[in-house]
Each structure stands twice: as C-alpha cells, then as structure tokens.
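Pipeline run #58 for the internal structure catalog. This entry was flagged by the ingest filter as a single-chain record with no existing model, so it goes straight to prediction. Upstream metadata was stripped on purpose; only the residue string is passed forward. Reviewer on rotation: M.T. Logging verbosity set to normal.
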Amino acid sequence: MISSTRLTIGLLSAAVSIVALPAPTTSGTCLVIPLGAPAIATAPSLEGFQLTNTDGVATLTTKGYDETFSFAGGGFGAFDACSYYWLDIGGLSPIIPDARNLTWALDSATTATGGTPKTTTWQAAYNSTLTSLGPPTTSTFWACARDTILTSPGTPVVYELFLSAGYIIDPPSPGASVAPSAPGYTCVGTGIFIQPPP
C-alpha cells in the first residue's frame, strides 16, 4: 500500500514537471482548427458534392472545405492549413464558352490573422447562396467533369467549377445537364450554398 505522503509528493513532482514544460510556439504551427460547415452544390445530380481546392482550382468533390469561411472585404475565403485561400474569378474558361475560371489563392500574403482577397465582389454568408456581384453578376456555376472520370468505376469524381458568364442564355436551371462544353466533358448548372456552422 502506498502512503498518502508519497502519493502527494509524487503528484506534486508530476505537476511541477508539467508546469516546467516550455510554452508551445506558434511559428510554423497552427494551434486552432476553427469549426465551420461545407459549401455544397445545390443541383440534385450533384448531391453530396462540396466546394474545395484542387491544386489551386475551384472544384467539387465529396470531401470539401468544412472549416471556417471568411467573408471579409467582399471576399470568400476558406481556412486551409492555417491560412485563408481566397476564391478568385479569372479569365474565360477553355472548357465552357462564356464562363469564368475560378481559382483559390493566398492573396496579398494572406494568413489566418489577416490579408486581403483579390476578388472583392462576392456576396457570401453562412446559410446563403454564394453570389458574384460582377462582373458577371450571377449565382449560377458550371460543374464540369471529364467523361472518362464519370464512366470509370471506382474513380473519385472531381468536378471543376466555373462561374457562369451568360453563355448566350444562363443555364436552364440548376441541375440541368448542358452540352455547350468542350468535347469529353459533361457540365451541370448548379448553385453553391454555404451551410450554417454547427
């Protein structure tokens, strides 16, 4: 049987050892993982697909960003690896005529504590639809996937996301498959809904 004196001294020694540990450093280490919710595709044919970043390109996959989003300064930023990546509207798409490329970038040396988005014309908030206030002004996106991926069993499907810029007429309705894409791609019109955080 252990005496209460030895047990008390042992616990005090352990407590002193814990207190004596050096404080954690924040250089190169992210100590906070903020909670958030995914931004999801609204088209019925894209159920379960979420907005994410694939090598700097805006994409929809079955596992997207689900941490904190930032809506600072009219931007739309996603927290990833201790920094905010900002969604930028780029030039014309090579895949779908009259649509704009969407990319993610660490703009203006953005960090988890600051920075400035390049595209500042997003209307975005939790529990709402992501909308570009222009140019172009729209909340319709195109999700395009290579036909070879869509027909390969067991291959994870990744849709590249583009902002609709009017292609003669806007896509008929979110979820409608369309054919103006480049050969070898299937594109679907969709909205992007930013779910409320838990």
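catalog note: Residues 57 and 103 are 4 Å apart (CA to CA).
catalog note: The chain has two helices and 16 strands.
status: ready for reviewer M.T.
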